[in-house]
Amino acid sequence: MPLTDRDILLVVDVQNDFLPGGALAVPGGDALVPVVNQLALRFAHVVLTQDWHAPRHLSFASSHPGKVPYETITLPYGPQILWPDHCVQGTPGAQFAPGLDIAHAELVVRKGYRRDVDSYSAFCEADGATRTGLAGYLRERGIARVFLAGLATDFCVAYSAVDARRAGFDVVVVEDACRAIDTGGSLASAWSRMRDADVVRITMDRLTRRG
Ligand code: VGL
Ligand code: ZN
After folding, report:
1. In the chain, is it the N or the C terminus that has fewer CB atoms within a 10 Å radius of its CB?
2. Are the C-beta atoms of 140 and 165 separated by less than 8 Å?
3. If you write DSSP's letter for every residue of 132-199 in order, what string do you get?
């Protein structure tokens, strides 16, 4: 699959709290960092996302007395899985992984910063209405196709991939440049929603170097 100047790599949430030892550790998240660094070198354009929650965010189990992480509750915008406190604005856990080395990244999109609305997606918050501005940015830059890598396959990668399709982009998830949380069947369901949305699923060996 040849890459062009109209392709972008969206590197999703490669942050300390999602690495082993972090508040919401994704298995294999640490091993992923050099893989993502190498992948990014093949792209002329890279955008990073950063999960960036207000303290006492409503997606945190600790904000709901009697609730524990990985339970699901209903919020005004629909079901919400409750998570351990993670990626709180300005904390070390919210910083990018120290090994992440993508100097040519052009933009950082922060998401989930409103206390009462989560945002797995880099394009649209969980209320289904509030846009982050990323689709407009990519369109203005002439981007036609969005590749995704990062954490976690079944949440922020999958929701971003489906929303990128909805925004009219071609979308490719680089499977071996992602790692999953996989709670309650979330990974299988994410792949099925991505397939339904015509998200292409590839591995890194299918990509040819640009230039
Ligand atoms: C994520 C759960 C909660 C992710 C973010 O980056 O996939 N998952 N917040
Ligand atoms: Zn989060």
Report:
1. C
2. no
3. -SHHHHHHHTT--EEEEEEE-IIIIIHHHHHHHHHTT-EEEEEEEEEE----TTHHHHHHHHHHHTT-
The pLDDT tens digits along the chain (211 residues) read: 999 999 999 999 999 999 999 999 999 999 999 999 999 999 999 999 999 999 999 999 999 999 999 999 999 999 999 999 999 999 999 999 999 999 999 999 999 999 999 999 999 999 999 999 999 999 999 999 999 999 999 999 999 999 999 999 999 999 999 999 999 999 999 999 999 999 999 999 999 765 4
Closest CA to 83 of 97, 101, 69: 69
Whether the full predicted model's pTM is greater than 0.85, yes or no, is yes
Are the C-beta atoms of 143 and 8 separated by less than 8 Å? yes
Q: Distance between CA 49 and CA 59 in Å, rounded?
A: 18
Q: Is 30 helix (H, G, I), strand (E, B) or coil?
A: helix
Q: How far apart are CA 118 and CA 81, in angstroms?
A: 10
Is the CB of 154 within 6 Å of ligand 1? no
Give percent helix, percent strand, percent coil of the chain, each to the nearest 5: 25, 25, 50
Q: Is 151 in the pocket of ligand 1 (CB under 6 A)?
A: yes
CA of 170 to the centre of ligand 1 (A): 23
Please give the single-letter amino acid code of residue 138: L
CA–CA separation, 70 and 67 (whole Å): 9
